[in-house]
Amino acid sequence: MAAPRRSQSPFRDASETTPLLGDGLEVDTEASTLIGTATPTVRSGAGTPGPGTPGDDARPEDVKPNKPLPKLQIFLLCYARMTEPIAFFCIFPFIAQMVQENGHLPTSDVGFYSGLIESLFSATQMLVLISWGRLADRIGRKPILVITLVGTAVGPALFGMAKTLPQMILFRCLAGVFSGSSLVIRTMISEHSTPETQARAFSWFAFAGNLGLFIGPIIGGVLANPATQYPGSFGKNKFFLEYPYALPGFVTGVISATSALTSALFLKETLKKRGTDELSHREITSSKPPLSTWQLLKAPGVSIVLWVYGHAMFLAFAFTAIMPVVLYTPVDMGGVEFDSFKISMYMAVQGASQAMWLVLAFPALQHRFAVVAVIGPGVSMAFTGVQLAVNDVAPDSHVLGTLNAVALTLSSGIRSIVPGAATAIYAVGVRGQILWGHLAWVILIPLAAAFAVACEYLPEGRRPKDDEENDENES
Fold first, then answer.
1. Which of 49, 79, 276, 317 is deepest in the core (most CB within 10 A)?
2. What's the average model confidence in pLDDT over 354-381?
């Protein structure tokens, strides 16, 4: 007997190019507004036709030509994608030491201020993401991408030269203001791809993000305080003696600057202009009114998916914020007592393993078992799987962008609060030696267990088409 299927949504043309604010599609409106997912928008049956691809009943004019991916364009966009996680994570190996030196703080207070500074990036990002998206829809993807990449180059360079805590806070906020590149990159990759090539394109998008997670800590750990780490080369350099954390910021800035330059010279604009006939017949003639945000949140399955999404982000951001402080804290206070180099190596290996797992193992597991089954077992799969669950539960094509925007805003909001709160709790535990300095971990354990329980209430994701056909044949 055939396994029960999840009812299919009435739409068949939802994609990464659905408008951000869900305003619907009209003649002569600008197409392909940015949306706010943090990972590829791939249906549960990645690699097989599904609700996100044209079906047998689609009009001929609705089907995009099956053209190969423009490799140079995808490569440049993936290179640009690396810059944001590099800029975000390059400070993690030395942030605790930098805070202690600039603020003249006791070791027990380092965690609180480290988490605060880490969180400011996401807090400012949350405030400007939709504005960057609207600007990109108005004046084009390419100019906004170049502007944000230039800002990403300047922010870390200034942060590395900060000598006081207020300066560190200011420059970290500046980096967050210009962190809108991933929105533009995601949309440009979608507009360069077809339904047949989109899954592969976004797998490289995800890989580039994890590669940035791998490279960022290496830059921060290997290049921080060069006068001490490499006295033969930098020991007499007055500049690096005065600014021991400037070199990682400069290198990060150079990477972002080269990406801005190559994007300006070689990337093609993908925004469709008004008055063109590039919009599909289905999009132009669609008259279904869009759901409001409140109606969307009340749609079947949406609230629980967003809850699980937020829960996964909470656990991931808490762990990411606490780990550098734990690795830096002395052993007798409950930490590991690594230096900056060892911290960077640990974080680099962690990022590399996640990147390879997502490229080599996750697609096959997700295709075989669907999204719900792969969210619980591992952190990296949960982080990606909840993104796919968000897209599976969208009730209508015209609100897919709004749903993703709500999810990304939720993610940014959590990332702006949780790291500071998590490191503050860790600092309280270390200062008072509560549970031998392990208070934060004891709190996270039941929260992680609750996540596994919440996953049981997720709606069943869309199954791969070939699996459904096999079940039908067996019946």
1. 317
2. 71
